[in-house]
Amino acid sequence: MLPTSSFPKSNEPERKLTGIEMAAMSGNDANQTAANRAAANRATM
Asked: Where is there biased composition of kind Low complexity (predicted)?
């Protein structure tokens, strides 16, 4: 879980914060690694 204190609530709406928290709580490491691989493939190309 990401600490909510690190995100400035004044700049970002609470909906965005909750979305980030839910993504962190779900813990989709597979999706994260897939995104990293896609980014790496785009960088090499």
From this structure: 30-45
